Amino acid sequence: MSNRIKKQVKQNIPERIPKAKSPERNNINFSFGLLEYTEYFGIECTCPGWSVELFNMFKELSKIKVAELHSTYRGKYRVHDHSTARSPSPFPEGILPQDCYQIRIATSKGGVHGVFIGDTFYVIWFDPLHNMYPSENHGGLRKIVSGKTCCDEKEEEILKLKLENQKLNEENEVFKELYENS
Q: How much is the pTM?
């Protein structure tokens, strides 16, 4: 290997591994020790882009303090408790709705639900289908379907609309001929 190649490779490797965060910084940490999958909360129905947005959110939030999430970033991540939510799945034993929070992943990407204990957010549920607060804008309350992504549902709808469009175009041609021959 030439010196030039060694030099280029060495430039891409960090000089050292970053030191662990000191406790006094209070940046948000994430834990999956309480993670549950239910018929309404899970990741089996997500598109590839969804996981990229999820990890971008985790990365960005791990650089800020819990207090900043509840103030400066409150609007961006729409962080709020579930004191008024009617969850389609029961909250885990010992967790009250007012102690559980939602953090939005990204616009129209759903959110994660969990509890804060100190500076750690314990993720309980992933909610890509917006099932904690279902609305018609996001398809209403839907169960997680393994092996089927949100893209599949959109593709099925597109196919249905294409077939309907084709049928209407054929009918239009018939009416056009009738009009021209009258």
A: 0.67
